[in-house]
Amino acid sequence: MHNTAHSPASEALPSAAPMALAGVRILDLSRVLAGPWCTQTLADLGADVIKVERPGKGDDTRRWGPPYLKDEAGADTSEAAYYLGANRNKRSIAIDIATPEGQVLIRRLAAGVDVLVENFKVGDLARYGLDAQSLQAANPALIVCSITGFGQSGPYKDRAGYDYAIQGMGGLMSVTGERDDLPGGGPQKVGVAVADLFTGMYATVAILAALRHRDATGQGQVIDMALLDTQVAMLANLGANYLCTGVTPSRMGNAHQNIVPYQVFEAAEGHLILAVGNDQQFSKFCHIAGHPEWAEDARFASNAERVRHRELLVPLLAGVIKNRPRDAWLAALEAAHVPCGAINNLAQTFADPQVQAREMCATVPHPFNPELRLVASPIKLSATPVSYRRAPPTLGQHSQELLQEAGLNEAEIASLLQAGIVA
After folding, report:
1. 89 burial level (CB within 10 Å; 0-12, 13-18, 19+)
2. Is this structure's pTM higher than 0.85?
3. Beta strands 90-94 and 222-226: pairing type?
4. Cα–Cα distance between 98 and 127 in angstroms, integer?
5. Is 196 part of the annotated catalytic residue set?
6. Who's near 271: CB < 8 A, 6+ residues apart?
7. Which candidate, 199, 182, 167, places its Cα nearest to that of 252?
8. In the CATH hierarchy, which fold is given to the domain comprising 262-348?
9. Cis peptide before 66, with omega less than 30 degrees from 0?
10. 248-263, pLDDT tens digit by residue?
11. What is the rounded distance in angstroms from the CA atom of residue 49 to the CA atom of residue 383?
12. Around Cβ 162, how many Cβ atoms within 10 Å?
């Protein structure tokens, strides 16, 4: 339902500093995570993002709860936390694009933007005359970024793609989780939707590159982003390991394929991560552990030998580490500049003084709650910092103002609202 409230919480907050993408307009026809993650990043950098949603339903993630945002009285609202995490700094308009009138509106909006982002199935927008070729005929400078599970070509192009399935198909689950020969071994997904998130970030990079090209030539282009492509790319060193050797990497639990010791160890009071990255750091660890001879042992003196002899070395390290409290280890290792860390839950993470010093929690006023807390952007720019100008919009919150900006008069807007084409 269209939100006609105009409380201070629903208005854009001023941004004191100049913004890197000020003046860039983006029409966002995406939903769920990969596309919205991309457009939220661009919006944080100053772009004006127009989020197009289905009347009455909106982005699927609005209903992906609990948990939901609570109002000032502590009652659940209609906004799921999942949706809130990927849609700040945007304006929402609800348009039924299945109708001819809705399609006309999309074309009208697309004629006045720099970028269109969509994650419809391959060919779906062409049925409405809203495909890249049709839109670029009216706006040759338009950049169209299409995000799908498998891309616009290939034998799987017509399949729906979901992060979980992509993590499996793209090899990530074959290298994530405990070793198969240990209790709890077997395929394991990553705790967050990394295929979606990485695709959103790669799409952001691609759009910025396309904007640079557009500014130089005046020409738009089409960006074809696929979750499976991204998942394969983000195998990184493990993908390189396979391509160089033909040997398929296996699950290693909390250990590292190429570095030893680089894993979780149990201490007397909790667990810690020991992340030794070179031979000098290993020597420092050995002295702290009271076993300097390990650093001189030919089987352990270099990383290559430690990898070859991990089955011998790791039990020795585990036997020593479990005899001291975790915090004692962390203090000694950090003082010696040996990489290490605690394993925090999210409450501990957001309470961490470093996380707080880096302002990784942002508070923005929302129409339902004046102190909505969101995970902040990690991008730190000295001259054009990100800003949090708008809370994630309620469904159709900006429909009327966006139609007015598109040049429609009050009678035309009223007719669209009454017909349910816009909400």
Report:
1. buried
2. yes
3. unpaired
4. 9
5. yes
6. 264, 265, 326, 343
7. 182
8. formyl-coa transferase, domain 3 (3.30.1540)
9. yes
10. 998 988 888 899 999 9
11. 22
12. 14
Say whether the peptide bond before residue 261 is cis (omega within 30 degrees of 0). Answer: yes
Tokens of 47: 């772009």
Do 206 and 223 touch, CB atoms closer than 8 A?
yes
The residue-averaged pLDDT of 121-150 equals 97
Tokens of 115: 């970028």
Model pLDDT for residues 373-420, shown as the tens digit of each residue: 999 999 999 999 999 999 999 999 999 999 999 999 999 999 999 999
Q: Given the residues 60, 196, 279, 352, select the one marked as catalytic.
A: 196
What backbone torsions phi and psi does residue 185 show, to the nearest 5 degrees?
A: -65, 155
8-234+358-419 under CATH 3.40.640.10, yes or no: no
**Rounded CA gap, 71 and 77, in Å?**
6
Contacts of 114 (CB under 8 A, 6+ apart): 24, 25, 26, 141, 142, 143, 211, 214
Q: What is the DSSP letter of 78?
A: E
Residue at token pair 């991990």 = 310
Distance CA 418, CA 421 (A): 8
> Which two tokens mark 80?
């799921």
Angle at 165 between CA 164 and CA 167, to 5 degrees: 65
- The distance in angstroms from the start CA to the end CA of the chain is 6
Q: Report residue 220 as tokens.
A: 């738009």
Is the per-residue pLDDT at 1 higher than 80?
Answer: no
> Nearest-CA neighbor of 366 among 13, 94, 66?
13
Ordered by start, the domain boundaries in the chain are 8-234+358-419, 262-348
